[in-house]
Amino acid sequence: MRKFVCIILTTLALSSCGVSNLTRSSLYPKMYEEKPVTLLVMPPINNTANVEAKELLYTSISRPLAEAGYYVISPSLAMDVLRQESAYDAELFIDRPLRQFHDFFGADAVVFSIIDSWAKQGIGINTKIRYLIKSTLTDEVLFDRTCDLYLDLSVHSSSRDKDGNTSFLGVLIDLAAGALNTALTDQIEAARKANYYIFEDLPVGKYDNLYLKDQDFPAEPKDVTKSVR
């Protein structure tokens, strides 16, 4: 009996070693300290050759933030103002004091994104994006996370004939469909999924029922790699 108990205890101890102790409050304590309510999303900083990546990502960042309980200033309104004030290039502000965005927009924090990779790779799209949320009052980094996302765009079209054999025409159709899948809609989907995964562990905002109650929620490492379809 004693031997059996020892085996059980050893098994439990070994299994507990693989459990992460990361929580939202341990990774992002300043989010709970400063409690931002209103967020301003800046146009992404694009370090890639894909000129469309900036617009694609910008149009999809606000939704997951709003769903997480934050008031997000209208991207279209913000874009118009930023362009008028020659503040469209986020790289000019990411390392500077941000108080002007609090005074002008009423934003508690500014959301920056940096696109380091956005390209077709094999039968999919690979994106690597870093996201930062910085306080407009203290200039502290409240949230910092990187997502390396591979979106699999493989197409399972019918390349077999009625007897189950692969046909040359079917192969050509598959190749054409695979090429079409790298179109704009798939790139938008890649941006949406990257944003979803990156903000998955974001402490929720004031307009969520779990506000300030999610501090002990388990969290993934701040740098995440995903492969999704």
Provide an overview of this structure:
This protein is of the alpha/beta class and 229 residues long. It has a domain at 22-153 and 185-212: ABC-type transport auxiliary lipoprotein component (Rossmann fold, 3-Layer(aba) Sandwich). 38% of the residues lie in helices and 22% in strands. The protein has helices at 2-17, 24-27, 29-34, 53-67, 75-84, 99-105, 168-180, 184-198; strands at residues 38-41, 45-46, 71-72, 109-121, 124-135, 141-152, 223-228. Strands 1, 2, 3, 4, 5, 6 and 7 form a seven-stranded mixed β-sheet that branches. A hairpin with a 2-residue loop joins strand 4 (109-121) and strand 5 (124-135). Helix 4 packs across helix 8. It is globular and about 45 Å long.
Strand-pairing-aware structural class: alpha/beta
What value does the average pLDDT take? 82
From the 3D structure, determine the CATH topology of the domain at 22-153 and 185-212.
Rossmann fold
- Report the oligomer: single chain
Shape: globular
Uncertain ranges: 1-19, 156-162, 169-173
Helix tally?
A: 8
Give helix and strand order, one letter per element, not per position.
HHHEEHEHHEEEHHE
Distance between the termini: 49 Å
Helix content, binned percent: 25-40%
CATH class of the domain at 22-153 and 185-212: Alpha Beta
Largest sheet: 7 strands, mixed
* Number of beta-strand segments: 7
Q: Roughly what fraction of the amino acids lie in strands?
A: 15-25%
CATH architecture of the domain at 22-153 and 185-212: 3-Layer(aba) Sandwich
Radius of gyration: 22 Å
